[in-house]
Amino acid sequence: MTNYADAGVNIAEADAAKKQMKGLLKSNDKRVLNTVGAFASLFDGRFPGYKHPVLVLKTEEPGSKQLLAIENGKIGSLCQDLIHHLLNDIVVMGATPLSVQDCIVCGKLEKKVITKIVHGMAAACRTQGCVLTGGETSEQPGTVPAGTYVLTASVVGVVEKSHIIDGKKIRKGDRVLAVASNGLHTNGYSLVRRLMKEHPGILKERVGKDTFLNAILKPHTCYYRALRTLFGNAGLHGLAHITGGGIGGNLNRILPKNLDASINVSAIDVLPVFNVIQRYGDVADGEMLRTYNMGVGLTIVADPKAAPTMIKHLKKSGHDCYDIGEIVPGKGSVTFRGNLR
After folding, report:
1. How confident is the model over 274-285, as pLDDT tens digits?
2. What is residue 11's predicted lDDT score, i.e. its pLDDT?
3. Whole-model pTM over 0.85
4. Angle 27-91-126 from CA coordinates, rounded to 5°
5. Could you tell me if 340 and 266 are in contact, meaning their C-beta atoms sit under 8 angstroms apart?
6. Residues of the chain with pLDDT > 70: what percent?
7. What does the pLDDT look like over 292-322, one tens digit per residue?
8. Is 102 exposed, middle or buried (0-12, 13-18, 19+ CB in 10 A)?
9. Rounded to an integer, what distance in angstroms lies between the CA atom of residue 277 and that of residue 282?
């Protein structure tokens, strides 16, 4: 007699994991109106203090970095990667994150691994003032190899309509500020994994006090706590999260059609880990700028009079911040001048 376990799905293991998840997701947040086990999560939709609340929605995944992270026992770091990337994408629009839902797809459900993932994502959410309200865990033997976990998550945030940051306030003469990343964040790992395979000596490289592997697996920086006190500041005209596509492929998303961002790449404080990648891969400067953040995790477009105060504020919040360019007449593009240091 054949049963579901013979097909690779252990319902008892899944039920035990879900029971443990229920405790991990327990929250004192009064906006959460039910607990894990219901068919869907209930979240109170009242927004005290908002005149015209606008919901901000986003779904994200940590890319092929998750393969490296799980292989090297960096589950907690991976969870931060996913949550921090997700939140940054709505924060740059001026939003306050509210609720996150996750989705974990695996070939074989291992309770120890699943509970570590849920615990990591719940903790990352709590640190940023939002809540992981639940999601989906799907065991798919035959579709996904055993030992492989594919993570995604979605967030709901809220912003006052008059405080939406979408680049419409950007003007000629505005300054472009770089806010430092701590490494690759969650982009460019397909190239890194290829270099690790073709040039295993890269793993012996030191990046400051870190091994190369530890340097590339640092969790994605979250900028919400540093930025939230700037929301509503009249001098803040635009924010761009620098992910896949680099500065050129992300800053252009908020530029008006008649303006360009002229970036002095000589001003960028390139992190040492990118020098190692470029050297082993013999990667051209232009390709590095298209693939990686190069040490710039976020760009701020600010009124020139407000820029010095914002730089000071970001530095006080623990994020290096400096001027890398200006807004000039153009066609909605990012242009580069100078050479990478």
Report:
1. 999 999 999 999
2. 57
3. yes
4. 20
5. yes
6. 92
7. 999 999 999 999 999 999 999 999 999 999 9
8. buried
9. 8
Question: Rounded CA gap, 162 and 178, in Å?
Answer: 25
- In tens, the pLDDT along 252-270 reads 999 999 999 999 999 999 9
Q: Please state, in angstroms and rounded to a whole number, the distance separating the CA atoms of residues 334 and 247.
A: 8
